[in-house]
């Protein structure tokens, strides 16, 4: 495909439009869990009333959070597939949380 008025050369390398989104690398795996930073885990612990935190807690809390989210997302996707939809709704998440024993209100 050649552009009109540019002779034999095409668009070239430096003429492309600005890229709007930065590549965030591989999604999933442990790289996504690194986004749960040490200070954010610390803030959650402070909110829970914890005064002093062992260094081994951070990776353990990341693993627990990953496990919790995996079960919630799996159930939400199951609810979504059952009703023959492709988009997970907020109610799917509410129902999956209720199924795990964590009932929340205000999303209906």
UniProtKB/TrEMBL annotation:
Gene behind the chain: HHF1
Recorded hits in Pfam families, A to Z, give: CENP-T_C
InterPro entries membership: CENP-T/H4_C, Histone-fold, Histone_H4
**Family under the similarity heading:** Belongs to the histone H4 family.
Family matches, as SMART domains? H4
**UniProt source species:** Lygus hesperus
From the Swiss-Prot or TrEMBL record, give the protein name: Histone H4
Region labeled Disordered — which residues? 1-34
Spell out the GO cellular component terms annotated for this protein, sorted alphabetically and separated by semicolons.
Answer: nucleosome; nucleus
Keyword Repressor present in the record's keywords: the answer is: no
Instruction: Please give the subunit comment from the record.
Output: The nucleosome is a histone octamer containing two molecules each of H2A, H2B, H3 and H4 assembled in one H3-H4 heterotetramer and two H2A-H2B heterodimers. The octamer wraps approximately 147 bp of DNA.
CDD domains the record matches: HFD_H4
Per its record, what are the GO molecular function terms? Answer: DNA binding; protein heterodimerization activity; structural constituent of chromatin
Gene3D superfamilies on file: Histone, subunit A
What keyword terms does UniProt attach to this protein?
Chromosome, DNA-binding, Nucleosome core, Nucleus
């Amino acid at each position: 495909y050649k552009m009109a008025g540019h002779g034999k050369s095409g668009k070239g390398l430096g003429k492309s439009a600005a890229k709007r989104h930065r590549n965030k690398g591989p999604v999933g795996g442990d790289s996504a869990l690194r986004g749960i930073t040490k200070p954010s885990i610390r803030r959650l612990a402070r909110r829970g009333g914890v005064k002093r935190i062992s260094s081994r807690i951070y990776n353990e809390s990341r693993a627990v959070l990953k496990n919790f989210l995996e079960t919630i997302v799996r159930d939400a996707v199951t609810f979504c597939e059952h009703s023959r939809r492709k988009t997970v709704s907020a109610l799917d998440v509410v129902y999956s949380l209720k199924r795990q024993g964590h009932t929340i209100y205000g999303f209906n």
